[in-house]
Write a structure and sequence with these properties.
alpha+beta, Mth169, Chain: A, about 35% strand, homodimer
Chain lengths: ~80, ~80
């Protein structure tokens, strides 16, 4: 089964890359965008058909490899 | 309102970064993971309270700046 994960910087951590995107959008005339945060997205294909079990596995993987929990949060997306 | 966007490589495009993550997981003993794809995640704060309008705006921004449509797909996430 496919599990989608989003890893984002914690909201109290500065995101200079997002800031640059927001400024670029301003310069391009997209005045409605007042904040941008960038993160990482992962799609895992797992040999596991039970969503709950796959989710637990994915959390383990986030903690061990994908996210730096000091400055980042992870979110397992709902099955879709 | 907040709009979340995911930009991924088209599935026919090689994703070496995802491949490395998958191999690393194998080496760490996570044998159940047989494929990993990596992408980018963006969270935009928009001065627009109508979801449909915000979504159209976000698509425009994806096409103009966030995604390279030659090799990437974008997806506007459902409001949550």
């Amino acid at each position: 089964m496919k599990i989608s994960i989003v890893v984002t910087l914690k909201k109290e951590v500065l995101d200079p890359q997002g800031k640059v995107i927001q400024q670029t959008l301003q310069n391009m005339g997209e005045k409605a965008v007042f904040n941008v945060r960038q993160g990482k997205y992962f799609e895992l294909d797992l040999n596991e058909n039970n969503y709950e079990k796959a989710k637990i596995m994915a959390e383990e993987i986030c903690k061990k490899l994908l996210a730096n929990l000091v400055i980042e949060d992870y979110k397992i997306m709902d099955n879709s």
